[in-house]
């Protein structure tokens, strides 16, 4: 019986250690869950051709949509750098100018980002409409979105 | 103690493999099924190579998993049909050795099937995977270990059920989602040209899952087998 | 469908699920209870 | 056997009262959300039901471990009952979440991390219930069920890791987070009410469902003794 107890203790220890190891290395990785546009512009050549994610705010009046070819182009910004994005296909409804979005894809040699997936985000804040939406609140929202991906 | 465990495990595996080599029921079924799956994908997808490239990692793993499941479903067949589960229980020593023995056999069969599927996939679908084979094999092995560990446990559990053919996949796939997801993503990155460093976090994750399943499943096996 | 349509649909579904489960549970309880009572009556008669 | 015990009736009554108040507060009194409008009111049923489901599955996990240790079938009765109720609440969460997703995200369903995780959770416990239904003898059902429940619960953090590395779209938790809830205080009240109401409802269901399991055990016992005698 004593041997059995030891076995369970040992097993529990290994499981906890494995989980902790995975979470620890996961935390390190999730720091680059997505890049910001300015980071991407900075390291251009190093990340060329690799699949990655970019997150930022969709620039006002930058969305172009061609229903014939299903080509969607827009710009993502974090206030400093701006990235051109080409996406084939449709985008989620919450995806709009001035809102936060994360795109998955590759940075091409032609100097634009080819996206294979667009994710729109809304924040976890719920409040009554006492304060109408302002530019400031949008900036706050954007900041909170960025914070998640990159502490 | 460890040597004893290894010796018993080896005996169990050897028994399964010799039985299989005599009849070749399971491995033949698995290999034919795998070839058939690759064949059917062709009709399901059409000739567009662009689409194929995008879905290739998923297809590859679908072929691996379904073939593997076919093998798992039969892994306790002999014991069940010949009513010798009780004899299995009378084997002296820890139950872990029975589990590891069965697991080693299952991994062996699944890896054999994968060794056929992988090159066939490359040939039939014109994918240039030859240089990537070592890293693909590593991912395939890590995925197979995790999948088979849970699979062996569930196969023992469902062997006594009514409707076991349905219950095995129904329980197996939700529980192995982490392994499947990790394997498919890692394969995807490798096929896209990323090196092993690129997929290192998925490999770490897969390794972690394997360790946890390899520790938890044999302990749980003891409760499944007791009578 | 307006905003309230979605709200109504969500609350309606939740209500149906909870009340449905309650009715299902009560039904099974009644069935099992009656079955047990009949069984006990029968076996009681037999012992006597 | 028709009506439940006094405890059950008190639990059921209190749950009904709290839920009625919570619904009134959430649907009528509290203002709509600034960004999403009235649709956001779905939160008052969506969030409490997933928390209740998690509590139910935690109960399954604990009683399953205890069952394998003590081998008391009463523990197993609690486990299977709690799993069944947990599946109901997970189903409600999935359904209301889809209905909430359509007007806000634009899709009924998306393979986002949290949604995927909840769907996996649902399938694991539906599998658990089916496993128990298909087992031929009750003791084997209890043992297999306990093993699967423990495995399934341990699988949750693993799924979590895998899926979160994959992608995430669902906003982070609004209630359990560093720095306090990000829900306006007026909105917290109906949320808390419904939360308490659903937990009490869970307790009520659990008491009744365990009673059903007890009747079934008793029936099996009577059958067995009768079979032996006759």
Give a brief rundown of this model:
Chain C is mainly alpha-helical and 48 residues long.
Describe this structure in words.
The complex is a heterotetramer of chains A (151), B (227), C (48) and D (230). By secondary structure, chain A is α+β, with helices and mostly antiparallel strands. Chain A is built from 3 helices and 6 strands; from the N terminus they run H-H-E-E-E-E-E-E-H. The radius of gyration of chain A is 21 Å and the shape is elongated. Chain A starts with a helix and ends with a helix. The model of chain A is unreliable at 130-135 and 147-151 (pLDDT under 50). With 227 residues, chain B is mostly helical. Chain B is 83% helix and 0% strand. Chain B has helices spanning 2-23, 25-45, 49-73, 77-81, 85-90, 95-124, 133-158, 164-175, 177-191, 200-225. Chain B starts with a helix and ends with a helix. By secondary structure, chain C is mostly helical. Helix content of chain C is 94%, strand content 0%. With 230 residues, chain D is mostly helical. Chain D has one domain (6-28, 40-169, 189-224). Chain D contains 6 helices and no strands. Chain D starts with 5 loop residues before the first helix and ends with a helix. The model of chain D has no long low-confidence stretch (mean pLDDT 84). Chains in contact: A-B, A-D, B-D, C-D. Chain C binds chain D through residues 3-4, 6-7, 9-11, 13-14, 17-18, 21-22, 25-26, 28-30, 32-37, 39-40, 42-43, 46-47, and chain D through 1-2, 23, 27, 37-39, 41-42, 45-46, 49, 85, 88, 91-92, 95-96, 99-100, 102-103, 201, 205, 208-209, 211-212, 215-216, 218-219, 222-223, 225-226, 229-230.
SSE map:
The complex is a heterotetramer of chains A (151), B (227), C (48) and D (230).
Chain B: H1 2-23, H2 25-45, H3 49-73, H4 77-81, H5 85-90, H6 95-124, H7 133-158, H8 164-175, H9 177-191, H10 200-225
Chain C: H1 3-47
Chain D: H1 6-29, H2 43-70, H3 73-105, H4 113-134, H5 138-166, H6 185-229
Helix pairs in contact in D: 1-6, 2-3, 2-5, 2-6, 3-4, 3-5, 3-6, 4-5
